[in-house]
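Could you help me review a protein record that somebody else here produced? What it holds is a sequence and that sequence's fold in token form. I have pasted the whole thing underneath without changing anything:
=====
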Amino acid sequence: MVKSHYLGKWPGVVVLRQAMVCDGLPVGMIVWALPPRETIKRYGGMTWELARLWIHDSIPSNAETWLIGKAVRWIKVNRQDVQYLISYADPSRGHGGTIYRAANWIADGMTDDERKTPRFDYRDAKTGKMYSRRGHVPDGVKLERVARISKHRFKMPL
């Protein structure tokens, strides 16, 4: 999943992994993670983030919504301490949140709606590698600041 997902890495604090299996082989996966503390404060209770969703290209296009629905039902039954689920759709990757709307999630604005100042990422001017925090940049790298694109936020109250 990590090699196939466009982000190419695991989220910070994984709390649950759910796989879709066909003929004994994984063809899809959802990875749930703990969101930043501010997100838990925003919703006022235990919140999990749908941090990664991957479906093999050979699987029909409605499988994402089907898998999300199955995953949400499992969490409702088995993790009653979780009160909200959240996820984001990144317009810079061509994602508008269609699968979340189809799965009856609630559009909850954009990630930068309440910000007073814009956020930036940093790009290595030589290699093009992106960094989300200046503290993650190795010494000696010539940086370019790149305005961060606000993401669509979706929530699912449980």
Q: What stands out?
A: The two ends are 27 Å apart (CA to CA).
